[in-house]
């Protein structure tokens, strides 16, 4: 089974900055978002150098139980493993748009924001979630962050409480025909004919990991860099062989460090984590 350690190892062996040019022709990527998704999938599957799109998709099918769609999280799920959400920003300090899906510490099969196909693609109840965040400047990759949701986002109750409070407040207005939806809600029959309705949806954003974790990593604007942040217990759960391969790769431009990060649920509590760092 593929995992984050194999993906990071593949990046360290062959980092590609010109992602748009590399993926535009052989993979039929129409924009940078699609090119980035191809690249992240290839890092996990070890298919960065595979030019034949049919062979590439055959490998995807072997390792992924769900390949994602444009409108619902996640972007893909590893069969029997983690879920991955790919995001891009154009600067080290830019926020990440999550649209109507609030930040997640992990992905739940019961979530109303995922599709039926995602829910039924394999037998699962919850999965660890990886945010793969790419910093692009002039269509060139400057930095890549892999960060697990439980290092980055609070528990779902934090966001659900806000969402429910807003919906309850809207429903309390007199003379408003409010109905519940998967979003924040909908106001029906706004005009005298009763033919207009108003959708109310959240537009969630989250600060980039480069900004959130600037107390353990300082952005390097001069070089292509990659980082992965993983709770220590999760790191130790990966296959021993995968850990050994990665640990043997440590050199001047690649390191694995023990760090302590603020708990997303209680910043006064520090969590033991592993930080993988690579620069080229």
TrEMBL record:
Keywords: Endonuclease, Hydrolase, Nuclease. GO terms for biological process: DNA restriction-modification system. GO terms for molecular function: DNA binding; type II site-specific deoxyribonuclease activity. Pfam families: RE_NgoPII (PF09521). InterPro entries: Restrct_endonuc_II_NgoPII. It comes from the Bacteria. This is Restriction endonuclease. It comes from Candidatus Harrisonbacteria bacterium CG10_big_fil_rev_8_21_14_0_10_42_17.
